[in-house]
Structure formats: C-alpha cells, structure tokens
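Protein modeling request. Please complete all fields; requests missing the sequence field cannot be processed.
Requester role: graduate student
Desired output: 3D structure, token encoding
Chains: 1
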Amino acid sequence: MDKKVVWNWKKNEKDFWLRPVTHTAYLGQRWLCSDKKTILDVGCGLGRNLIYFAKQYGFRVTGIDNSEYAINYVKQAAMEENVAVDVIKDDMFNMPFKNGSFDCVFAYDVTSHLTRPQFLKVLSEINRVVKQGGEIYITLLSKSSANYKNAKPENMLDENTVVIHEEDGTQRYEFYVDINDIMQYFGKYEFVDEIMEYNIYNYKKCDVYTKYFGILIRKK
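Delivered output (220 residues):
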C-alpha cells in the first residue's frame, strides 16, 4: 500500500470547507425516510457534512480522518453545535469498524488524491463496513476534467491516475474515472439514482475546470 494520504487542514483559509455540500440535504431526507440510523463519513475533514447530518436529521454519525488537526476541530465544533458525533483518527485503508457497522457511508471528495490501488482498497473497506442493503454515496473526479484531458503521457501513472509535480519538488496523485470505469468498479452494486456529472469552473480562468461524478449505490 502506498503512503498514507493526509490533508493539511491547518492551511485551510476558505469557509467553503466549513459549509455542508448540497448533496447532504437530499441524502439526509432520503435516509431519514428510509429509516436509516447510522452514517459513516469517510475522510470527514473539518466535519461540515458530519455535523449537518447529526444536527439536522438526528443520525448517529461517525467520522474518520487521518488528520489529528481535523479530528480536534470536529470535536470542538460538535461541542459548540451541541451535537453528539463520534470522530476517530485512523486510516481509511484499514478502518477500525466491524463488518456491517453502518446503514450508510458518505465519501465526498476523498478519492481525488489516491492511486488506483489505494482507491480499490478504500472501496473494499467501505463495502466491508456498510450493511447489506445499506447505501453509499461517493464522488469521483471525471476524466472530462481539464487536468486529466491535458495531462502529458509521462505524467500518467496509469489510465486513471495523473501524477502532479509540485513546485517544492514533491508529487501527488489525482484519480479520475469515466462511465466505463464506474461500471467496472461498482458493477456489483445496485445503482439507486442516475449517475450525475457535475461541473466546477474557475470563472477567472475558463480553461480551468473540474468535473466529478456523484454516485449513489446500494450494497446487494
């Protein structure tokens, strides 16, 4: 397994990462109406979605993240919001939960900086900890994104993974899929909704854009 992926949340200066994403409202209502009780937020970050699920809908929510700063932030934020959540600092490649522990798994923007083997390992862990008949919402970068379409051949680790070389000499990965990849990786699941592809444009630089898929599936 490649090195652990840890996001440096100390550098965050954007309140974007503190606002729950729009998908949480739909999923919260859906899961509430289908009598779901427990949610695992994989790579919960600063807790924007985790706290919303707990406060708005009363779910028993557990978050896992490999950043100690993020975990401490979530604990403080949950206390200020007067909501009870469980947050655990641990590795999403080997999650410390029993098989079938959760009704639902929420994995928003956690696969973006993985290699393909890492993605497959995380997906295997998600499949393990969600109950039979449980639902999974996961987002994945689309191969229609500018960074993938413009990637040079020498910067392709494989057909899904772009190697990004930083100015400080370090490198990171970006993992992308298309519809064929989705059918390959998620073929054993039931697709609950139509697969949606979303666009994010940089209004200052129109040639810079990111597209990602939002996928809601059920474990058979």
